[in-house]
Amino acid sequence: MAKRSFLIPGVDKRLLIKDSIKTMPDVTRRRFIAGGASLGALTLLTGCDVIDSSSAEEMLKQVSKFNDAVQAFIFNPDALAPTFSESAITKPFPFNAYYDLDDAPDVAGADWKLEVRGLVDNKKSWTLDELYKLPQVTQITRHICVEGWSAIGSWTGTPLRDFLKLIGADTSAKYVWFQCADKDGYNSPLDMRSALHPQTQMTFKYANEILPRAYGFPMKIRVPTKLGFKNPKYVVSMEVTNDYKGGYWEDQGYNSFSGS
Fold first, then answer.
1. Crossing angle, helix 13-22 and helix 53-74, to 10 degrees?
2. Alpha helices in the chain, H assignment, sequence order
3. Which of 35, 93, 222, 223 has a CA positioned 20 to 30 A from the CA of residue 11?
4. Phi, psi dihedral angles at 114 (to 5 degrees)
5. On the CB side of 254, how many CA atoms lie within 13 Å of its CA?
6. Distance in angstroms (rounded) separating the CA atoms of residues 29 and 21
7. Given this model, what pLDDT does residue 90 score?
8. Residue 253: strand, helix, or coil
9. Where do the Oxidoreductase molybdopterin-binding domain residues begin and end (predicted)?
C-alpha cells in the first residue's frame, strides 16, 4: 500500500497525535503510550501520514484493529482466569453501567425469552425456566473494569460452550453477538474462541441467588478473561455469525478483544 502524505502549513503532527491519543479509552491509551506511541509508529502500522485530526483518528482506529488481532493471536483458550475463595468476595459488589441503577432495564422474567439466531441448528427461543434446568456451575472470579477498578464476585450459570453445543452452533464461525435490553440498544460481539473458553458463562445467579436487576437479570454473559464491558447484561438474544456487527463500546473506539 502506497503511503499517503499531505502537507498542511502550520500543522504540528506531534500535537495532533497527542490530542488524538487523549480520545482513546484509558486502558487502550495507557497500553499504546507504554508501547512507545509516536508519529513514526502510527505511520509504520497504517501506511499513512497524519495531516489533521480526522486522519489521526483514522490511524488510531487502524491501530485498535491491529491491537485486536495481536490479542486474538496470543490468546490461550486453555489458560484460566484466577479463581478465589468466598472470603475474597467484594461486598457489596458494585453496580456498573454507563447509567444509574434506576435507569437499568427492568425485565419481566415470566415474559422473557432468549432468542437464538444465526448459524445454529436449533433456533428455538428459550424461557428462563428452561434455561434454569440446564446444568450449572459456580465460579468466583474477578471483574476488571476499564475505568481502573476491580471486584470479586460469585457467579452461577451454564458454560456458554455447553449451550452452543446444545443448540448445534457452528463453532467454526467467528463471533457470538449479544443484544441486550438496555434502552440504548447495548450489544457486544464475542470472538468464538473466547465464547468456547471453559469459564465463559451464561450467568443466572449471583451469590447463589437469582441474578438481581443490578447485575443483569435475567441473564448476563460472564467472561472473566475479558474486561468488564465485554460482559453484557440483560441479554435478550444471541447470534452466531461470521459478520462483525460492532458493539456499543466497540463502535466508540474500544478494542473488541479487550482481554483482561
1. 60
2. 13-22, 26-34, 39-46, 53-74, 128-132, 160-166, 192-195
3. 35
4. -85, 115
5. 22
6. 6
7. 97
8. coil
9. 105-249
Beta-strand pair 113-118/235-241: parallel
Question: CB–CB of 259/190 below 8 Å?
Answer: no
Instruction: Give the tens place of pLDDT for each residue, 229-251.
Output: 999 999 999 999 999 999 998 88
Q: Which helix (H) or strand (E) holds 156?
A: strand 150-159
Length of the chain: 260
pLDDT bracket for residue 79 (50, 70, 90) = confident
Model pTM score: 0.73
Secondary element (H or E) of residue 183: none
Query: What letter represents residue 220's amino acid?
Result: K
Residue given cell 478483544 in the structure block: 257
Q: If pLDDT is split at 50, 70 and 90, which confidence band does 189 have?
A: very high
Measured CA angle at 23 (ends 20, 25), to 5 deg: 130
**Would you state the cell numbers that stand for residue 62, as one nine-digit string?**
487502524
Residue 27: other Cβ atoms inside 10 A: 18
Between CA 115 and CA 235 the distance in angstroms is 9
